[in-house]
Amino acid sequence: MDFKVKSRIADEQALNRTVTRLAHEILEKCRGVENVGIIGIRTRGEYLSKRIAKKIEEIENVKLPVGVLDVVMYRDDFRMKNRLPRVEITNIPFEVDGKILILVDDVIYTGRTIRAALDALMDFGRPSSIQLAVLIDRGHREMPIKADYIGRNVPTSPGEEVRVLMKESDGEDAILLVEENK
Amino acid sequence: MNLSIKHLYGLEGVPKEDLTQIFDTAFSFREVLERPIKRVPTLQGKTIVNLFFENSTRTRISFELAEKRLSADTVNFSASGSSLSKGESLKDTIQNLYAMKMDAIVMRHPVPGSAKLLSQFVNAVIINAGDGTHEHPTQALLDIMSLKEKFGKIEGLNVAIVGDIRHSRVALSNIFGLKALGANVALCGPPTFIPYGVESLGVKIMYNLDEALQFADAVNLLRIQRERQGKGLIPSLREYRNLYGMTRERLENLKKPLTILHPGPINRGVEIDSDVADGDYSIILHQVLNGVAVRMAVLFLLVGGK
Which of A174, B1, B17, B87 has its Cα between 20 and 30 A from that of A83? Predict the structure, then answer.
């Protein structure tokens, strides 16, 4: 599909500030870092989770355990599509039992990815709670799911999409509002 | 990404890109096997029948586990105790099973080419779990995946396959897969075990095991098929062990690292000594674990999706 950029929602500096704020909010709500683990949803949620963990380390001088989750195996939509998605490796290198897990993704939209991620996390054990942090909430939820930490609310109309670019995969940091070219 | 193949009859003609994607997917699925709850809902609602017309322990259990780990519904069929003993033909059996709405059929059968024949009767995905002396693609996939795990890449790797090449479906599938990925393959065994004209597949032939071991980074030791003995192909198991058995002395005299694979079941003291099979160079039990993962990958890539 072809897209054209409608506007730049954030540049590198703004994205960095938002990540800093998310890190502070997580610390405030969890009252510190004890028993907290961070899990990023592939692909950009992974990079974002590592950045949040790094910020928290800078603030509190504590290294949080970080994991990465691929939810493809739990998705409800690949059965309807002709093209199969790639299954990437999930790696959660710590015990999740009794932990407060911060699930991180770049954009929340229908909520179906988060539904799949919650199902996946349950197969790793029994965390004491799971909280959701997203960089962008673009609305249009199809599931009763809500984020605990939101970088920005960006209301979108049909045909619009939010693209988060990150240095790790895209060479630059930015958040773009794009529109499908008809 | 979808595979270019729609069924897995064998590894002959399967392109490199498909093989690479199967391995990448398999490494992702292997992680599932380490979780407290070893099950993902990926193939929910799909029905798979395992048809085994020949005995099997590893392959049958491995396929069944792979299917269950992916939440598919499975039905098992073994030839003994079935209507085949009442004289029903393969075609009728398969068409009846298919009428019960199967999405995929995993079949082991003694007749070469039977897996491909099946696709003329039914519209399900066919996965060959061994067809006579022809191919055993998932075994070769798990062998190659284990080599990939050990060495990082297959291109340029020297692999020797030792034993009864002539009756081995494992050997043929390995040759196709390894060659497609750019490995150098040598076959080693007594001349009666080397099929006529096999050089045309681009493999070296060696009749001396020590020469093959010098060449090899990894060696795949095939099982001496005791059920095929007594046909005059080798004088005795004892002589075979002396000339082609992987003994500890041979390994120690080699003075270089060697990775040892075996598709199982092992004849300890014939093609491989116990302390070699259980030793540091052996990755035999890795192969078994990778077998479940690679079968999950094949099932997901062929049966998953619309």
Answer: A174
Mean pLDDT of A48-73: 96
Question: What is the architecture, at CATH level 2, of domain B16-135+291-303?
Answer: 3-Layer(aba) Sandwich (3.40)
- pLDDT tens column, B289-299: 999 999 999 99
Chain A CB contacts of B29 under 8 Å are 73, 87
Nearest Cα of chain B lies from the Cα of A43 at a distance, in angstroms, of 14
CB contact under 8 A, A89 and B31: yes
Region B6-32: mean pLDDT is: 97
Chain B residues whose C-beta sits inside 8 Å of any chain A C-beta: 1-2, 24-25, 27-29, 31-32, 35-37, 39-42, 45, 297, 300-301, 304-306
The predicted pLDDT at position A182 comes to 67
What's the pLDDT at A47? 97
Residue B177 pLDDT: 98
Partner-chain contact A90 B28, CB within 8 Å: yes
- The closest CB to that of B41, out of A74, A81, A87, belongs to A74
Q: Which ipTM value was assigned to this complex? A: 0.86
Provide the pLDDT for residue B1: 74
CATH of domain B137-287: 3.40.50.1370
Sorted by where each begins, the domain ranges of chain B are: 16-135+291-303, 137-287
Asked if pLDDT for residue B61 goes beyond 80, the answer is: yes
pLDDT value at residue A2: 75
A94 touches chain B (CB under 8 A): no
Residue A98 banded pLDDT, cuts 50, 70, 90: very high
Q: If DSSP codes are grouped into helix, strand and coil, which group holds residue A3? A: strand
